[in-house]
Design a protein that fits this description.
Rossmann fold, Dehydroquinate synthase-like, alpha domain, 2 domains, three-stranded mixed sheet, 46% helix, binds nicotinamide-adenine-dinucleotide, binds ligand LNCXM5UN, binds zinc ion, nucleotide binding, DHQS_C, lyase
Length: 364
């Protein structure tokens, strides 16, 4: 079992990473003073529920918790305002009060959605993250919670930190291969922005990660969570440093929105976006090796590096203008300068961005 801490003063919380934690959930809930008197609501999705919901519910009920559950459709389209409303209805029907806790059991979609329900229900109740995807090593840590708008990704949301993150590595064994690769996108990102050695390790161990080898997976998620926790601890609300976690997201979020949330998985869109950022890095004078390493590392974990031909460049440019990273009339990009180091560039020339997006269709 590995343990990390997100240091945020009175909002600090632990990240537990290990095998079999789902079966020990109640003990952790009690350790972290989750109320036994007020009902809990577990929010999960239709792929996760048949595999893990009964075991979590059983463990909590046996320990004396009152538990209700809500199962949403799998996939990005569940991160919507209408889903938020139906979950609030569910919370009211289940009698959740201000001392209740919302539990997110699932990937980043469930985590972001359930977290936003927790942030808004009765103006904020506690929540616990139980991530079940590789990608969710990123989404379960840091307290960014949100739903999408048809025009812009994650545009309705809040900062709301969980009470704890309970990461049971055993649940990852049932992930479909496409979601394994998509999740590794943010793992590779954490190396690219912070740690050259970890980037090299990801490349060397790509096959073990794709095969879901527990030792490799445990180490990769521990390292990824460590980077995330370190950054968030220094800058909870993205006043400056935290923006580096957005590597690849300026283009990536636009791709997700243009595709109508679903054609490209988040990790896939971010992979293509990171190639775009690496190309932008070259324009700012980064050595060629930064681009080639980025591309090789992402390819090795089975991610796309090329923008599909049918994506409309004008629509992508337009979507970027709605993103949170378009501010004070300029485009903001996180740009790699060497492996393990990035810089935030404001005032990026629109003409450069357009050229790079066009170039993304030509990547080999
Ligand atoms: N809040 C943040 O800081 C943050 C960070 C990164 C990403 N995100 C968000 O996370 C979302 C993507 O997360 P994701 O990739 O985990 O997507 P997801 O939650 O949709 O999960 C991917 C797929 O895997 C299925 N699944 C989940 N766990 C499973 C398991 N153990 N076994 C079998 N199937 C399982 C899901 O049902 C889904 O079909 C995006 O909405 C993105 O914006 C948020
Ligand atoms: O936690 C962060 O900060 C991140 O940027 C992590 C990203 O991987 C994540 O996709 C996040 O939701 C993007 O932030 P947003 O503010 O652009 O929605
Ligand atoms: Zn992301």
């Amino acid at each position: 079992m590995r343990e990390l801490k997100v240091e945020l003063g009175e909002r600090s919380y632990p990240i537990y990473i290990g095998e079999g934690l789902l079966q020990e959930a109640a003990a952790y809930f009690k350790k972290h003073q989750i109320s036994l008197k007020s009902p809990l609501l577990i929010i999960t999705d239709e792929h996760v529920a048949p595999r893990y919901l009964e075991s979590l519910e059983g463990n909590l009920r046996e320990a004396g918790f009152t538990v209700a559950s809500a199962v949403v459709p799998a996939g990005e389209s569940s991160k919507s305002l209408s889903m938020l409303e139906s979950l609030v209805t569910k919370a009211l029907e289940a009698g959740l009060d201000r001392k209740s806790t919302i539990v997110a059991l699932g990937g980043g979609v469930v985590g972001d959605l359930a977290g936003f329900v927790a942030a808004s229900y009765m103006r904020g109740v506690k929540f616990v993250q139980i991530p079940t995807t590789i990608l969710a090593h990123d989404s379960s840590v840091g307290g960014k919670v949100a739903v999408n708008h048809p025009l812009a990704k994650n545009i309705i949301g809040a900062f709301h930190q969980p009470e704890m993150v309970l990461y049971d590595l055993n649940t990852l064994q049932s992930l479909p291969p496409r979601d394994v690769s998509a999740g590794l996108s943010e793992v590779v990102k954490h190396g690219l922005i912070w740690d050259a050695e970890f980037t090299a390790w990801c490349e060397e161990n790509a096959d073990r990660l794709l095969a879901l080898e527990p030792d490799a997976l445990g180490y990769a998620l521990y390292k990824g969570c460590s980077v995330k926790a370190a950054v968030v601890s220094k800058d909870e609300r993205e006043n400056d440093l935290r923006a580096i976690l957005n590597l690849g997201h300026t283009i990536g979020h636009a791709l997700e929105a243009v595709a109508g949330y679903g054609e490209l998985l988040h990790g896939e869109a971010i992979s293509i976006g990171m190639i775009g950022s690496a190309r932008l890095g070259l324009r700012y004078g980064a050595p060629e090796d930064v681009y080639t390493t980025t591309k090789r590392a992402l390819s090795k974990v089975g991610l796309p590096v090329k923008l599909p031909e049918h994506f409309d460049v004008d629509a992508i440019m337009n979507a970027m203008m709605h993103d949170k990273k378009f501010s004070e009339s300029t485009m903001v990009f996180v740009v790699p300068t060497e492996i393990g180091k990035v810089e935030i560039k404001k005032d990026v020339q629109t003409a450069w961005v357009r050229e790079i997006v066009e170039q993304l269709k030509l990547e080999a």
